[in-house]
Structures are given as C-alpha cells and as structure tokens.
Specification:
Elements (H helix, E strand, L loop, with lengths): L1 H20 L9 H20 L21 H7 L1
C-alpha cells in the first residue's frame, strides 16, 4: 500500500510541470490587429509580384575554389 502511495505521488509530481507549461485559450484578435495583418500580407504579396523570378536559380558550387579540377584521364578509365 505504501509503495502504491509513493508511486501515485511521484506520478503527480512528474506531471505538474506539464500543466504549468500549458497556455490559456487563445485570445481573439482586435480589429486593429486584423487590419495590420491584412496590410502586412498585402505588402508581402506586392513584394513577391515585384520580384523578377524567371525560373530556378542556376546551380552553384560553393566549394569550386577548394576542389581540384577534375582529371580528364580519370573519366576515360571508367569508360
């Protein structure tokens, strides 16, 4: 019986931090906050439209200065 009581107390103590981390229900946004969010979203969309995106970026190799040039004889050996 004593062992059961100790186990119950330990479980209760281990779960207490979980309840402390829970936040309350989300608060409703005010009209001013909603308007600000809409303005921010519109500015973001306008910025995306102004960007010149012609397709995927060209692949680049950031290590190209570090790696030695590929040997032409090595490729001919594999064929």
């Amino acid at each position: 019986m004593r062992r059961l009581a100790i186990t119950a107390v330990m479980i209760a103590l281990l779960t207490a931090p979980v309840y402390a981390q829970q936040k309350g229900p989300p608060t409703a946004r005010t009209d001013q906050e909603k308007k600000q969010d809409a303005e921010t979203y519109k500015a973001y969309q306008d910025t995306l439209k102004r960007m010149d995106v012609t397709g995927p970026a060209a692949p680049t190799d950031p290590w190209q200065d570090v790696r030695p040039a590929p040997a032409t004889t090595a490729t001919s050996k594999h064929q």
